[in-house]
Design goal:
Elements: E1 11-14, E2 28-34, E3 50-56, E4 66-67, E5 79-80, E6 93-104, E7 107-113, E8 120-126, H1 146-161, H2 166-182, E9 191-196, H3 198-208, E10 218-222, E11 228-233, E12 236-242, H4 256-259, E13 260-264
Parallel strand pairs: 9-10
Antiparallel strand pairs: 1-2, 1-8, 2-7, 3-6, 3-8, 4-5, 6-7, 9-11, 11-12, 12-13
Helix pairs in contact: 1-2, 1-3, 2-3
This protein binds zinc ion (ZN).
Residues 161, 163, 165, 167-168, 199 line the site of zinc ion (ZN).
């Protein structure tokens, strides 16, 4: 059937940012305000930690079929809009995964929502276990700045690890060094062996999407003596070992050389 489809918004987004160009990568905390006549439809939603917000990106250009993921890196080649999650597309439907913080009446408080204030909400769906593909193949859309790359990695690690601990930041720092040398760390050619806390190992597994088998790309050893990760790609081995005398409070601010002893062979 070709023809018009009429959709009626069920709510709206309340957020500090009003312009798509001002929306940071990874989204922001926001409130999904559901119109009173649809509130009954929220029954039971608080049992979910994550929800899909399907919205209408009302400020998006609709005349583009090809664009680049410029927010991540303006130097990257163009992709078709159906191969990207950019807001520009013929039907600017927003698909945003958000963490559900709490529900109060007709208001759902979420974090990490990539939709500006005033965005009409079309639908809300729970994120299910069945939605999880632990190690999907995805294009390598590399952030131009290291800060951008680390921000995206921090988001990935948080989504996987579900707590924001010091070792998560340590894992992000290790993975961004590995990425500088080996490229995409969740590529099938990269493997990692983690030594340290369970948190470090868990975050490195989340960042690399390395499984223990089929094929084995990840392994770990729990240690309270040493924090390190050994990365392999092709014939090369990269060893990143945390310096013993470094405090753990300031991990994102310190230089690589202050934090780690790095060896490539
Ligand atoms: Zn942790």
């Amino acid at each position: 059937m070709r023809g018009d489809i009429v959709l009626t918004p069920i709510g709206t987004i309340l957020a500090e940012v009003e312009e798509p160009l001002d929306m940071p990568l990874g989204g922001l905390p926001a409130v999904v305000e559901v119109y009173p006549e649809y509130v009954k439809g929220l029954k039971g939603i608080e049992e979910n930690s994550h929800i899909w917000i399907i919205s209408w990106f009302h400020k998006a250009p609709r005349d583009k079929l090809v664009t680049s993921p410029w927010k991540v890196n303006p130097d990257l080649p163009e992709y078709g809009v159906f191969a990207l999650r950019t807001y520009a597309r013929p039907n600017p439907i927003g698909l945003s995964l958000a963490e559900l913080i709490t529900v109060e009446g007709n208001r759902i408080y979420v974090s990490g929502l990539d939709a500006v204030g005033g965005t009409p909400v079309l639908d809300i769906k729970p994120y299910y276990e069945n939605d999880i593909v632990f190690s999907p193949d995805t294009p390598y859309i590399r952030g131009k700045q290291r800060e951008t790359r680390q921000k995206l990695m921090t988001r990935h690690a948080r989504t996987h690890h579900r707590e924001d601990c010091n070792d998560l930041h340590m894992a992000v720092r290790m993975a961004s060094i590995a990425e500088d040398i080996f490229g995409k760390v969740n590529s099938p050619e990269v493997s990692v062996f983690a030594v340290g806390s369970g948190c470090l190992a868990d975050c490195l597994q989340g960042l690399t999407r390395g499984r223990l088998a089929a094929p084995p790309r990840f392994d770990y050893m729990i240690s309270d003596q040493e924090y390190s990760s050994i990365w392999k790609k092709g014939g090369q081995t990269l060893i990143i070992k945390a310096q013993k005398n470094v405090g753990f409070d300031n991990i994102m601010m310190l230089d690589d050389e202050v934090l780690f002893h790095i060896e490539l062979k």
